[in-house]
Amino acid sequence: WDVIEIDAPPRAERYFEIDGIGGPPSAGTGHVAVVVSAQPVVTGDQIRQFAKAHGGTIAGVITAQARGSPLDASVGSRAASELVEVMTKAKEAHPHAVGIQLFIAGPATLAFMAGRAINDNVIPETWVANFADGGYDLALVLPRSTAPARALDRTPEQEQLRVKSLARIRESLAELQQT
Length: 179
Known about the structure:
This protein is an alpha/beta fold. The longest helix has 23 residues, at about 155-179. Strands 1-3-2-4-5-6 form a six-stranded mixed sheet, sandwiched between helices. The protein has helices spanning about 45-55, 75-95, 110-115, 155-179; strands spanning about 15-20, 30-35, 60-65, 95-105, 125-130, 135-140.
């Protein structure tokens, strides 16, 4: 087993070649496609097809392409640090974007590092793409729920109402089973 330290001091040389975060802020809206890759790059056609299939628009594209060295313990902290930089600068480069569409082309460790780098206080919505059959499908939308969870009222009156409602549901199900 190889251990990749993600909190160690980063090395001086960059692990990724990063493109799409320089220059003035974009006026584009929609999602920013963020491609994190240790393998051949995700194509522009795949990104556009994914966005179109899921009703999204592309505000811009940011790529973080590994420069050739394998992802191992010697470069893990640097790669993790650079992914935090990419996710932070994605919002700075595209201030009007509603979130990101995340495309990972590489090992699970790389996907973990990219997910760990996303701060949902900075990036409000993340569409996680999964590669299948030559294209990308929507695997997950984060955060899972933007609505805060409501505390369950545990007063005796509310408990009694829940018991009555459950009894009505059970009665209805029993009737349906008999038909």
